[in-house]
Design goal:
By secondary structure, this protein is α+β, with helices and mostly antiparallel strands. It is 20% helix and 32% strand. It folds into four domains: 167 residues, Alpha-Beta Plaits; 88 residues, 2-Layer Sandwich (Alpha-Beta Plaits), CATH 3.30.70; 114 residues, Beta Barrel (OB fold (Dihydrolipoamide Acetyltransferase, E2P)); 35 residues, no CATH class. 43% of the residues are buried. The structure holds adenosine-5'-triphosphate (ATP).
């Protein structure tokens, strides 16, 4: 049986993964596999933070135990699923319902929780649709009916859509996130401890998005949530081993944590070289820079880009810091593959592969061909010698390019959850 939960928090507090953590602890006897944190369309207007929904799988006939976390200092175990058929477990839905009710943020019209429970899951195309488009809630309701899924909703029930998309995820590309909790609000750690934990994570090969080259650490949330830190990796064993190391230094940080299986860092939202581009979609496109960079109001940077299907502006925003400045070094003719989401005809950049650097020649005043003296532009592109007045054609000098070919991305703290960091390129077989 699958349970999906979404939209239980607000910027003032709460976190849907925290409810997933409580549910994992409460229903260990039925829990199978890892709980899942599934990120959906990053361009959705009504997300609280990262448009994430949570789903868990339960079964009465489960196999070997696996460690997936700790609650109040005790291990949380899950099991490998052995069941031939899905079975509805009423108790699982009732407990989930109570946990959502007790832990959701109330009285905020931005918080519209949805809880679903069922034995059948939507097709994978629903997951894809939830990554790429804005789904009409009516479609979600008819899917609930078609699949015989039990649901409960609060507010306008928008969370139903994310919940359904979360159980529709097939996990073809998987990463893991270990989330550590300290309820009701995440413990604030001194900067020194954050650095120690950040460096511990960064020293492991198969982690990602821990910190950037300037040393800024991305593991700790800004908003008020029960989360203390989240560590991301392509290996759950690595996460357990880091957690053990953290626990030796900070025993009180080793009491409550859960490892989620996720689609973070997988580029699942990206459509490569599509036939049609749609507003709000996320794409990877190859083409050439078609103009010079312009700094806009609010500090964003944009530059024209021509690809097979047309022309658009590439945009990088202030929070991406060094990445935004990178656009300043691009020149017409540079061959690039870009990744990002389409918003009002602009591509909001997530990363860029600079594949070929064009040679740029600038027109300069030549030395006089007759006497070697200085020349001055007459205004018509003809350069007249200051001494002997002979007319000369312009000279051209190759611009010294500062950019080097390579793969660029924003610093870890400014990346989108779904965006695959260059470090993970090649980590997934499919
Ligand atoms: P939370 O931790 O509460 O889940 P969040 O940042 O993930 O926070 P939500 O508060 O869940 O964002 O807001 C996103 C809302 O949008 C949810 O109600 C979800 O069901 C809905 N939603 C997500 N993807 C889509 C989509 N593609 N089409 C329509 N609705 C969507």
């Amino acid at each position: 049986m699958w349970i999906g939960i979404d939209d239980t928090d607000s910027r003032e507090g709460g976190c849907t993964t925290y409810i997933g953590f409580l549910l994992s602890g409460a229903l260990q006897k039925y829990l199978t596999g890892f709980p899942r944190l599934v990120r959906l369309n990053p361009n959705i207007p009504y997300k609280t933070r990262g448009n994430g929904a949570v789903s868990l799988h339960f079964s009465k006939s489960a196999g070997d135990r696996i460690i997936i976390g700790k609650k109040d200092g005790e291990w949380i175990f899950s099991r490998r699923d052995n069941a031939a058929e899905e079975e509805y477990i009423p108790e699982a839905f009732t407990i989930a319902e109570k946990l959502v009710e007790d832990n959701m943020i109330k009285g905020n019209d931005q918080t519209n929780p949805g809880l679903i429970g069922g034995t059948r899951i939507p097709t994978e195309s629903f997951y894809r649709m939830a990554l790429e488009k804005i789904i009409d809630q009516k479609i979600s309701y008819s899917l609930l009916e078609e699949l015989g899924i039990t649901h409960r909703e609060w507010g306008n029930g928008r969370g139903i859509t994310g919940s359904l998309a979360s159980i529709a995820w097939r996990g073809r590309r998987i990463t893991y996130e270990l989330i550590s909790y300290n309820s009701p609000n995440g413990k604030r750690l001194p900067a020194r401890d954050k650095r120690i934990i950040g460096e511990m994570c960064e020293s492991r090969q198969d982690t990602f998005n821990n910190m950037d080259s300037s040393g800024k650490i991305a593991l700790f949330p800004k908003e008020r949530t029960p989360v203390v830190y989240g560590i991301r990796s392509i290996s759950h064993e690595t996460l357990l081993s880091i957690q053990e190391e953290i626990g030796r230094l900070y025993p009180d940080l080793d009491r409550n944590f859960l490892i989620y299986q996720t689609n973070q860092g997988t580029d699942d939202h990206i459509i490569h070289d599509p036939e049609i581009l749609e507003e709000g979609g996320s794409y990877s496109l190859k083409g050439r820079i078609d103009g010079v960079p312009v700094r806009g109001e609010g500090g964003h940077m944009s530059i024209p880009f021509r690809h097979e299907k047309g022309i658009m502006n590439l945009m990088a925003f202030e929070p991406s810091k060094s990445f935004r400045n990178l656009l300043q070094g691009l020149r017409p003719g540079d061959l690039v593959r870009v990744y990002g989401s389409l918003s009002r005809g602009n591509l909001k950049l997530e990363k860029i592969n600079l594949m070929e650097i064009s040679e740029i020649y600038r027109r300069v005043a030549p030395n006089c061909s007759a006497c070697g003296g200085k020349t001055r532009n007459t205004g018509s592109g003809i350069y007249q010698c200051v001494s002997c007045h002979r007319k000369n054609m312009p000279a051209y000098r190759r611009e010294q390019r500062t950019m080097v070919k390579g793969k660029y991305e924003p610093p870890a703290f400014a990346r989108r959850h779904l965006s695959m960091p260059w470090k993970l390129e090649g980590a997934f077989s499919a």
